[in-house]
Amino acid sequence: MDFASIIATELSLPITGVVNTIKLLSEGATVPFIARYRKEATGSLDEVVIIAIRDRLHQLEELEKRRDTILNSIEEQGKLTPELKKEIMEAGTMARLEDLYLPYKPKRRTRATIAREKGLEPLAELIWQQRRDTDPEEAALKYLSDEKGVASIEEALAGARDIIAERVSEDAHARLRLRQLFIRDGYLECKVSKGKDEEGKQYQNYFDVEELAMRAPSHRVLAMFRGENEGFLKVSVEPSPEQAYEILDRLFVRGTTPAAELVREACEDGYKRLIQPSLETEIRQQMKEKADAEAIRVFAENLKQLLLASPLRERRVLAIDPGFRTGCKVVCLDQQGNLLHNETIYPHPPESKVKEAAAKIRSLVQAYQINAIAIGNGTAGRETEHFIKHIPFDQNMIAVMVNEAGASVYSASSIAREEFPDYDVTVRGAVSIGRRLIDPLAELVKIDPKSIGVGQYQHDVDQNALQKSLDDVVINCVNKVGVDVNTASKELLTRVSGIGPALAKNIVEYRSKSGGFKTRNELKKVPRLGDKAFEQSAGFLRIPGGTNPLDSSAVHPESYSIVDNMAKTLKATVTELMTSDELRKQIKLETFVTKEVGMPTLKDIMNELAKPGRDPRKEFEMFEFDKNVHSMNDLIPGMELPGIVTNITNFGVFVDIGVHQDGLVHVSQLADRFVRDPNEVVTLNQKVKVRVLEVDIPRKRITLSMKRSGN
Fold first, then answer.
1. In this structure, what CATH number is given to the domain that contains residue 669?
2. Residue 711 predicted with pLDDT over 60
3. What's the predicted TM-score (pTM) here?
4. pLDDT averaged over the chain?
5. Which DSSP letter does residue 452 get?
6. Does a structural domain hold residue 290?
7. Rounded to the nearest 5°, which phi and psi values hold at 594?
8. Which structural domain, as residue segments, surrounds residue 342?
9. 323 with 295, same domain?
10. What is the DSSP letter of 547?
């Protein structure tokens, strides 16, 4: 089967780009490498499209495997006709394939099987023909048999109906028509389970819901299914049974003869007993997959924004993991996030050693030449921020609240234990908070993305699909930014195109023995890092200050000769070319086009020469919460407050306003105009102004608005 043509048609892409992308993937090329360094082959397809091609290719391959299995099974039964084979070969979905296979699929004993064993199939066939001269009751007399357990006319007719009902339920065309009915007119009904009104109060919004199933928003579907799994809700999906009966009537019932009436009864029984439960399960699965896909998309977009958050870069940081009774754990880190010192201070009740704690912070700032202070935003976070901002430092000091979601997961992980075997979880947690300020991406890659808390219903969706999508996001973000091969952690290196855990470990061991890499070519000396791994990874691994100035850029080593020729043409050095706008303006790119290298690659090279190793992330911006607001008790409806976006979902945006409980800006309160996608309005970590609409302290709920006052 021509997978490339199918994918090109479905995704509206040029066939050549799809063919070449599939070829590159089959040769072991990674998505970041293809997107960045094979633009001529793909027609400059980006990561999102390449991933879509990869995933659809996998689906089509699975479909083809199933098609082969079905063909072999039916052929072994001696029932594969040319017409059936043609239908199977033309089936474009798994559902259609399974419909065609259903009559031939090995099955457990059914009511129809038992009726056949009683010799009632000829009677069923006679009734199925629905001739005017057929008297079903008279015909049934022939099949009465004590030996076979058919004691009455009604038993014989019931058995015949069972055979017809199964035949109807296995008819591929009927299932297709009814599936379309379910998709078009199927209603999702959700009710509270009997006697669960009080216990399931958290699901009260879903106690009486009815809406078109395939139009139900993903977050509602996942919430209802969760409530059902927990036993608080009952969920059903079905179109009007009368519509279904009408379809079956048109397909199978001919006239109003007694035989036709029996066929009609069998059709209704086949629908209620066999087709409806099967299609409901199938449509529920489709709804779940659709809801999963949307929830995963939201999570992936949030994660991407979080990973690409602005780094503070090259600052020595004092990080604090706040606490009341157990004190505040303090660590001092150098520019690369290495731990220099740690201890505990007790500025809050019950100890309240404010003066001693302030003196200690001042002395640490001076001793370790600290440029910024990172404060975890968990318990005692705002109180610690208030304490820090009242310390009179001898220099301007940046103090930043850092989202510590997932820090406790990291601190208890094997990665943290390996990195800090001699320190407890509190020290590791404080280090993680500080490193998130210095470089969020480098630190967050050590944590399972599901623990970072930026999704919706992430524990309810298909975990394999979620993990695959989040892995793609992490890998693409790491490679988009690039990695300093001489300072990156093993976890960060693992995510580099073509590397993986084993090579990352070998790279770290090699650099510790050799004192670091001087050139990219030296990577080839790393054990087991062969030509393919070098090709895939070299452009994403940077060596600032190395022997070759291009080693600090995203120019791939395979293109160094192009840059050398450019410099030679201008009688300049590569370094001069990288530092002189005037020289670069003199280059005529078309003269360097070859069969293998086109304008997309040449333009990328020129951009890199202008800003070698440029970090695509935005510059860091300071942010402060309202100094007068520290808890929910301080909130008053109508207040306007600064906030920072912590999570984006399809139903709205969560905003941290500094009271230990994020507020929700419902999608209807995001903008003065109607929006479908909250990502149209805000991004993760964006600084925003919000207005307090409602405060529900017992339920710990804050309702906010981003609309202008009066709207």
1. 2.40.50.140
2. no
3. 0.86
4. 93
5. S
6. yes
7. -130, -175
8. 317-438
9. no
10. S
